[in-house]
C-alpha cells in the first residue's frame, strides 16, 4: 500500500509563552487527528502511592518501563479502547505541569540509516502515561522523556509539548535515540504541523535548549550536517519533500497568517520560522480559531470561494479525522488547582465547543467516560460528533444554527468560569476540590444541553432540505 500520512495520527500544535498571551497564561494546544469515528473519553487519575515500583507494559509494541512509587493526580483523554495502546494524549497534573503528546513528525532516511527507530521503544501511546504523573516542572518533563528516549529508544519521530506557569517547551525526537528541545520564548509562539520544526540549536544556552548527550558527536561522526557552520535540527533530521508542502507547511502558514497578518509568506514555503512574535497579545479565542480553522478567507477553504482544485489542494487544520482538540491553559497568580484549565473540544474542532475543566477536579461528567466505536447518545464524543454530521449535510443552510450555538455557549461558559474562579478562591482543601469538581461537571453539562438543543434545531430544519422535496409552481 502506498505511504499516506493520513493513515497515521497527524495533528496540529500551538505553543505560547506567558508574555505572548493577553492574561499572562502559558498555553499549549493541539488537535488530535487520527480517524473520523474513533471516540475519546476524559479521565481523572487519582494520586496514588505504591509500596514498590509499578511496571508499565505497552499493549501496542511491548515497551516496558519501571515507574516511580508516587503517581500524581492528572487529567487525560484516553481512547475508547486500549487495544492499540492507551493514547492518553493530554492533561494537567497536580503539580501544575501540562503535557500534550504527540505531534507526529517524520525523520529523513539519512539519519535513520545510522540510528533507526526502535520497534519496542517508547511511542505516542505511552508518553503521557509514563511522564506526566511523575514530573514537577515542564523542564523536568523534558528531561525525563529525553532520558527514556536515549536509554530505550523511540519507535516514532514525534513532537511533545510541555508547560508550567513559567515555561513552555517543545521536544522533538529525530531518530531512534536522538532528541532536542527548545524553550518557547516568553513573548513568542510556535505552530507545528507534522514536521520536525526546531531550527538552530544554541548549545551555549542550557536554559533555552536541551538535547541528547551525544547528538553533536552522532551528527559529526556520521557526516549528517549539510551546513556544518550551524546546527539546524530541522535541516539535519527532518524531511523537505512535496508532501510537506501540501500536507504540513500550509497549516503553519495559515496559523502564522492569523497571528501575524502583516507578514507575507507562501503556504508551500519550506522556510517558515519555528518561533514568531504575534502582532498582538493572544487571547484564548485566537487559539480556538486557529485550531478550528480550514483556511477561511483564502481560496484554499474547502467551504470557500476558490476553484475545486484550490479548495482541496492543502490539508486543513480542522478536519473530519479530529478526535478531540485541547487547550491546556495555566493561568498566573492562582493556586495550582484553579490556575490550570483543561479545555476540551470533542470531535471536529470547527463544529465543536471547548469546554473548561479545572485541574483540581477529581471527576468528570458521566458522558465523558463512555462511548464506543458506534454511535450512542450517552457519549459526549458522539453528541458533539453528531452535530458535525448534521451540519455537514447542508452546511450552507445550517451553519448559522451552529455558529449561534457556539457563540452563546462560549459566552455562558466564560461567565460561569469567571464566577467559579471567584468562589473557589474563597475555599480551601477538600471544600475547594469538591467545588471545582462540581463546577467542572456543571460546565460539561451546559455544553451537552446546548448541543442537544442544537441537534433538535438541526434535525427540524433538515426536514425541509430533502432531495425528495418539491416546490409547487405558484401559477398552477
TrEMBL record:
Its EC number is 3.4.-.-. It is an enzyme of class 3 (hydrolase). It comes from the Bacteria. InterPro entries: C69_dipept_A-like (IPR047804), Peptidase_C69 (IPR005322). One of its GO terms (biological process) is proteolysis. Keywords: Dipeptidase, Hydrolase, Protease. It catalyses: an L-aminoacyl-L-amino acid + H2O = 2 an L-alpha-amino acid. One of its GO terms (molecular function) is cysteine-type exopeptidase activity. Transmembrane segments: none annotated. Pfam families: Peptidase_C69. Belongs to the peptidase C69 family. PANTHER family: LD30995P, SECERNIN. This is Dipeptidase. It comes from Ligilactobacillus acidipiscis.
Amino acid at each position: 500500500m502506498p505511504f499516506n500520512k493520513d493513515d497515521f495520527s497527524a495533528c496540529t500544535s500551538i505553543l505560547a509563552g506567558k508574555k505572548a498571551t493577553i492574561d499572562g497564561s502559558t498555553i499549549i494546544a493541539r488537535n488530535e487527528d487520527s480517524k473520523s469515528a474513533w471516540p475519546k473519553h476524559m479521565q481523572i487519575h487519582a494520586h496514588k502511592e505504591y509500596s514498590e515500583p509499578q511496571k508499565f507494559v505497552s499493549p501496542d509494541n511491548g515497551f516496558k518501563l519501571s515507574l516511580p512509587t508516587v503517581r500524581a493526580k492528572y487529567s487525560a483523554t484516553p481512547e475508547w479502547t486500549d487495544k492499540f495502546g492507551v493514547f492518553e494524549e493530554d492533561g494537567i497534573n497536580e503539580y501544575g505541569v501540562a503535557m500534550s503528546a504527540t505531534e507526529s513528525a517524520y525523520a529523513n532516511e539519512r539519519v535513520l540509516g545510522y540510528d533507526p527507530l526502535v520497534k519496542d521503544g517508547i511511542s505516542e501511546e505511552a508518553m503521557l502515561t509514563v511522564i506526566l504523573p511523575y514530573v514537577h516542572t515542564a523542564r523536568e518533563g523534558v528531561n525525563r522523556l529525553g532520558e527514556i528516549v536515549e536509554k530505550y529508544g523511540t519507535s516514532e519521530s514525534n513532537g511533545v509539548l510541555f508547560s508550567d506557569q513559567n515555561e513552555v517547551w517543545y521536544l522533538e525526537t529525530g531518530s531512534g535515540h536522538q532528541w532536542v528541545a527548545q524553550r518557547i520564548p516568553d513573548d513568542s509562539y510556535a505552530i507545528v504541523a507534522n514536521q520536525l520544526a526546531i531550527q538552530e540549536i544554541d548549545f551555549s544556552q542550557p536554559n533555552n535548549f536541551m538535547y541528547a548527550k551525544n547528538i553533536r558527536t552522532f551528527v559529526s561522526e556520521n557526516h549528517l550536517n549539510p551546513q556544518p557552520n550551524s546546527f539546524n535540527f530541522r535541516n539535519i533530521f527532518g524531511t523537505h519533500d512535496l508532501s510537506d508542502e501540501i500536507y504540513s507547511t500550509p497549516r503553519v502558514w495559515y496559523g502564522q497568517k492569523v497571528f501575524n497578518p502583516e507578514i507575507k509568506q507562501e503556504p508551500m514555503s519550506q522556510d517558515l520560522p519555528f518561533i514568531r512574535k504575534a502582532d498582538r497579545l493572544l487571547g484564548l479565542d485566537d487559539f480556538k480559531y486557529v485550531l478550528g480553522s480550514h483556511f477561511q478567507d483564502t481560496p484554499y477553504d474547502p467551504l470557500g470561494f476558490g476553484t475545486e482544485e484550490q479548495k482541496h489542494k492543502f490539508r486543513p487544520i480542522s478536519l473530519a479525522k479530529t478526535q478531540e482538540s485541547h487547550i491546556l491553559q495555566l493561568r498566573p497568580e492562582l493556586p495550582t488547582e484553579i490556575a490550570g484549565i483543561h479545555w476540551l473540544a470533542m470531535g471536529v474542532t470547527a463544529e465543536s465547543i471547548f469546554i473548561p475543566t479545572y485541574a483540581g477536579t477529581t471527576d468528570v461528567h458521566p458522558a465523558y467516560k463512555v462511548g464506543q466505536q458506534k454511535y450512542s447518545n450517552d457519549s459526549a464524543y458522539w453528541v458533539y460528533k453528531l452535530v458535525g454530521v448534521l451540519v455537514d449535510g447542508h452546511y450552507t443552510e445550517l451553519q448559522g444554527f451552529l455558529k449561534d450555538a457556539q457563540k452563546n455557549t462560549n459566552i455562558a461558559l466564560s461567565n460561569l468560569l469567571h464566577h467559579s474562579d471567584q468562589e473557589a478562591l474563597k475555599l480551601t482543601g477538600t471544600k475547594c476540590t469538591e467545588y471545582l469538581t462540581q463546577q467542572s461537571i456543571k460546565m460539561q453539562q451546559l455544553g451537552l444541553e446546548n448541543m442537544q438543543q442544537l441537534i433538535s434545531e438541526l434535525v427540524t430544519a433538515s426536514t425541509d432540505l430533502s432531495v425528495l422535496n418539491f416546490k409547487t409552481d405558484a401559477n398552477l
